[in-house]
Amino acid sequence: IKLKDYRQYRDVELPFKQTSGNDLHIIVGKNGMGKTNLLNAINWCLYKEEPHLSKDSEQLPRLNLKTIENAEEGEKGQVAVELWIQIDNKQRIILTRKGDYIIHKNSLPSPSSSVFEVKIVDDKGNTNILKEEEAQNKVERFVPQGIRDFFFFDGERLDSYFKEATGQRIMNAIFGISKIDLLNIIEY
Predict the structure, then answer these.
(1) Alpha helix locations (H) across the chain?
(2) Is the pTM higher than 0.85?
(3) DSSP-derived 3-state class of residue 23
(4) Integer distance in angstroms from the first to the last C-alpha of the chain?
(5) Which of 1, 44, 48, 8 is nearest to 25 (CA)?
(6) How far, in Å, CA of 77 to CA of 113, rounded?
(7) Could you give the dihedral angle defined by the CA atoms of residues 24, 22, 151 and 129, in that order, rounded to the nearest 10 degrees?
(8) Phi, psi at residue 9, to the nearest 5°?
(9) What is the pLDDT of residues 135-173, one digit of tens each?
């Protein structure tokens, strides 16, 4: 994952090395170190949402505070999050979401534009670039939003996670992935 001016992350690259076929990455750190914001960065990149924001974070801009502080009135700042995913040494997927903001000294930066794209690079180096809706459709097939809570969850919220993860919700997520519900529709 690469983060540029996303909340407290100015310019950070975090490699998550694959050590087996089914890696699990657990991030441990003191409160306020950015664990939840890292989770939110992934969610923002994939779904343009930050579902784990605290009440304090909701009051802060997505654009890095130091970037805002060092900018002039009306200058543009950009938040960027990239996720690099390697699939079986045959394909690399690079998901990138960028958001441009106009900086104001006396108020929060205002969003001016955003871009989302998915680059698919095969083992020969051929690249296919999907943008906006087509890119979002790729994400929905790859990591459907309906099941994101089973992949990305905040340990501080485990109590509510297990209360909300009802059998019906899990069943709906499985149906969404497997497209079993589509078979029921076709049958009628």
Answers:
(1) 35-47, 55-58, 65-70, 132-142, 158-164, 167-178, 180-187
(2) no
(3) coil
(4) 44
(5) 1
(6) 11
(7) 120
(8) -90, 115
(9) 999 998 888 887 777 666 566 555 555 555 556 666 666
